[in-house]
Design brief:
Blueprint lengths: L1 E8 L6 H14 L3 E6 L13 H12 L5 E3 L2 H5 L5 H11 L3 E8 H6 L6 H7 L2 E4 L12 E4 L8 H9 L10 H10 L9
Parallel strand pairs: 1-2, 1-4, 2-3, 4-5, 5-6
Length: 192
C-alpha cells in the first residue's frame, strides 16, 4: 500500500513554500509520494489569476527535480469548483490500495469548519496541518501536525512583486520564474 500526501492548491504560481511543505511532510510521515493537485476553480476564491494550462505547466516545472512529487489533474478534468470531499472520494475509488493524507497550511486548519461536508471528509482522509506565520494549528478536528521551517511565502505576494517589476528570485524555482517571464504572466515585464 502506497502512502500518498495530497497537496491541493491554485498554484498561481507554485513557490518554494509549497515544495518545502511537501518535502517536510513526506519525510515526517514517511510518505511514498506527494501529489500536487491544482484546482480548476478554488471553492474559497473567486478565480485563479492565470489559466489552467499555465498553472499545470508551472507546477510540473516546480516539481520536476523531485522523484517523489507528482502532479494529478483530477480537479482540472472535473472543471468548475472542486470540493475536497469529491476529490478524495474519487481518489479512494481510483486507488483503493493507497493511503492518503491531505496536507494543509495553518490558515486552512482554522477554516476547516467551513469546508464542504467536513465531518464526512475527516473520516475519509486524515489531515496534516503545517505551521504558517500568523496562524495557530488549533481545531476541533483530529489532525496530524508537522513542524516545518517557517518560510513565509505566498503566491499573492509573488504576483504583487511581479506586477511591480520586482524580483522573485529564490521565491519560486528558477524554471518557474523563467516560464513566468517567458509567458509574461502576472504583469511581469521581464527586466529582472
Amino acid at each position: 500500500m502506497k502512502r500518498i500526501g495530497i497537496l491541493g492548491g491554485t498554484f498561481d504560481p507554485p513557490h518554494l513554500g509549497h515544495l518545502i511543505i511537501a518535502e517536510e511532510v513526506r519525510l515526517a510521515l514517511e510518505l511514498d509520494e506527494v501529489w500536487f493537485i491544482p484546482t480548476y476553480t478554488p471553492p474559497h476564491k473567486d478565480s485563479a489569476k492565470t489559466g489552467v494550462d499555465d498553472r499545470i505547466r508551472m507546477t510540473e516545472l516546480a516539481i520536476e527535480t523531485n522523484p517523489h512529487f507528482k502532479i494529478n489533474t483530477i480537479e482540472i478534468k472535473r472543471s468548475g469548483k472542486s470540493y475536497t470531499i469529491d476529490t478524495m472520494k474519487e481518489l479512494a475509488t481510483l486507488h483503493p490500495n493507497h493511503e492518503f493524507y491531505f496536507i494543509i497550511g495553518a490558515d486552512m486548519v482554522e477554516y476547516l469548519p467551513k469546508w464542504q461536508d467536513i465531518d464526512e471528509l475527516v473520516k475519509l482522509v486524515p489531515f496534516v496541518g503545517v505551521k504558517r506565520s500568523g496562524y495557530e494549528l488549533e481545531t476541533e478536528y483530529d489532525i496530524f501536525t508537522v513542524n516545518i521551517p517557517l518560510i513565509d511565502i505566498s503566491s499573492t505576494e509573488i504576483r504583487k512583486r511581479l506586477q511591480n517589476n520586482r524580483s522573485v528570485n529564490y521565491l519560486v524555482p528558477e524554471r518557474v520564474y523563467a516560464y513566468i517571464r517567458g509567458e509574461r504572466l502576472y504583469g511581469d515585464k521581464g527586466s529582472n
